[in-house]
Amino acid sequence: MGMTITEKILARAAGEQNVRPGQIVNARIDWLMTNDATTHVSVDLFKHKLKHPRVFAPNNTVFILDHNVPSETVNTTRVQNIMRGFAGEHGCILYDGEGVCHQLMVEHHVNPGQLVIAADSHTPTMGAVGAFGAGVGSTDFTAAMVTGSIWLKVPPTLRFELKGRLRPGVYARDLILTIIGDIGSDGAIYKTMEFGGPALSALDIDDRMVLCNLAAEAGAKNGIIAPDEIVSRFLAGSGRAVSAQDFLQSDHDCTYEKVYHYDLDKIEPTAARPHFVHNRAEVSVLEKENIRIDQGFIGSCNNGRIEELRVAAAILKGKKIKPEVRLIISPASRQVQLAAMREGLTDIFLQAGAMVVNPNCSVCWGACQGVLGPGEILISTGTRNFKGRAGSPDSFVYLASAATVAASCLEGKIADPRKYDGKETK
Amino acid sequence: MIRSRIWKFGDNVDTDQIIASQYLLVTEPTAMLPFVFQSLDPEFAGTVKPGEIIVAGKNFGCGSSREQAALVLKLLGISVIIAHSFGRIFFRNCINIGLPLVTMEDFSSIAGQGDEVGVDLEQGNVFYGEKVFRFPEYPPHLLAIIKSGGLIEHINTAQED
After folding, report:
1. Residue B28: closest CA among chain A residues belongs to which residue?
2. ipTM of the assembly?
3. B89/A135 CB distance under 8 A
4. Which of A2, A171, A366, B28 is the most exposed place for a label (fewest CB within 10 A)?
């Protein structure tokens, strides 16, 4: 019997020939990452609870400040300094205001076949380059930092077989919101979501990050896509040489718990209504409901990469957003922000009336920038639309693609982007 | 044996609802307690009594990895959480800090808010009225963590050996 990519990565990390779903393995970790939302909890456990504290592999332990950046209160700075101090003292890699954590891990570190554990729920993003990424809490993180390994239950795999091609005005974001609408917020709990099929050849790294990242919102342990030429080119572009044997593929005789089929030609611009990611609605339907918006957001670990910024800029170019709407754009990393500036996208955004802010979790985190007041409505490329996620418990968040956010900000209400970017072929 | 009143919650209760993002950088954990379940049930934090039990539907604790969500429930004295299913990171977090969980399908559709429930973690029984519901034993590796009192204690013990 063959194995899936995820089973192969876990087998390698555990030093086993074969693993099967349900089996518990002790896996060696390639990359460990934590951010400023919770690192102080881990540092406290490390300093005050562990009898023999030490950092097993500081060169593979990455501390990223991205949630409350730049700091908005004295307390935040105090808590962030705990993190900066720890990273300095133990020689861990530190990124301070460089971008959103998962974006930085993919840009700079994570390679195909690797095992990544991070104290953040959207770690499945790593699957975009064919790596295993799973989120954990502070105690798991601390234990992993000390031992260099973690116990994991080998997950069964759900296969999402993708064919066809997304039509103009429709993006990977619409596809994953469609899938989560179908399988539900608990549709993949404890499981792997593996995306594959002929459609992948037209989905680049940014699109793949969108798919794998939001696997977390179906409850998945990880999301993954077999690495291919697109990954190979991406890695070469960022100066990383990877051995062919790390480009793991699922065997033809592997076992999938279930196979879902999607024809990308049939995917429509899709949104999620408040307050659950699985509350799927077609944007064309929402448009007819005349839902006014107070704020738009393009950014987060799900979005805000150069592809999405290009799409938003194509819609906003030469136009003005409605004056009563605030549009906040946070590029996913410094690299992305620099590219957006070079390509003239930042000019387009500023002239359209948007606020372009530094790379960080921003509005998606709901505690630092663009916090919503009672009764306000946000349309967002963020990861979640939970009650109160972006501020007041009495506010409302719709999730959609960067194109839908841009179009909606032009009209002051949720709007179908296809009337603006119908000429785009992607 | 735990015996106490229950607090009922529905499906897909995410960790943002248990404790919202804006309180996560509060470094003194007890200072977070007044804000627990602020958006879903503002009465909860001021009314819950030590030992009480949460009974919930599907996917309890989904969403953000914030371990503070498990910690504040433990600090408020929640003795055990029974749910149809749990978010996977929340599940690990609870085990790791020594807050017991029971996965039991459909129990939340039977039990009502304020009802009394008994839980025997050793024997794997939930007692409700005249009825007894069985749940499977934890796998050995989890049981070892729970018996140590949490993952950190488990590591401390292992490093002594």
Report:
1. A41
2. 0.95
3. yes
4. B28
